[in-house]
Amino acid sequence: MNATKKILVIDDHHLFAEGLAMILESSGNQFEVETSNNAQYLLTDLDKLKGFDLVLIDLHMPNLSGFSFLSAVNAQSLAIVVAVISGSDKRVEIERAISLGAQGFIPKDSSSKEFINASSQLLQGKRYLPLAWDGEIDWKSGDDESIPDSEALTERQHQVLELMRDGLQNKQIALVLGIKPSSVKGHVERLFTKFSVNNRTSCVQIAQEQKLI
Q1: CATH number of 5-133: 3.30.300.30, 3.30.390.10, 3.40.50.1220, 3.40.50.2300?
Q2: Which of 11, 27, 152, 178 lies 20 to 30 Å from 195, alpha-carbon distance?
Q3: To the nearest whole number, what is the mean pLDDT of the chain?
Q4: Pair 101, 73: CB distance under 8 Å
């Protein structure tokens, strides 16, 4: 890779993010690395976000999770490569991240060499998983196969439901999906009617019981 590649590390632990930035920038590759601890704020400046060749994001953060960030990238068709960095190695979480469009998973306890190798592969357009996960994950995207039980829901309603499950309020959901808060309110109200409930907790609970999310 001859041209400088811009990488964004999003993690609410400053020490980890800054340490990873130093590792990548001192690797001998032409990496230019920025860090952020606020995924929600980044979605207010999409032009800047689209200027990065690779985004490495933690899954579990306050305000806006890595899952919700991936949903935003998906919903708004942002042409950026996103991979997950996480201290969790729960298969269900990794599969969910990949279904939302993540191009890779790098455990936080990986060596410096693995982080550099993974970033290089991702920047070359390849997907990345640790060797121990090789063959364990199905790389189908969330769009490859519809969920039979969710046929009664529109795609947007399904997106809103997932973000409600993650605890996002209407304004945050609007930011993630790139739509107006009033539109989100309308979707929420239709979901309440569909499930015959009058609050978000019950709505999410029923959707989970029906395996819609």
Answers
A1: 3.40.50.2300
A2: 178
A3: 87
A4: yes
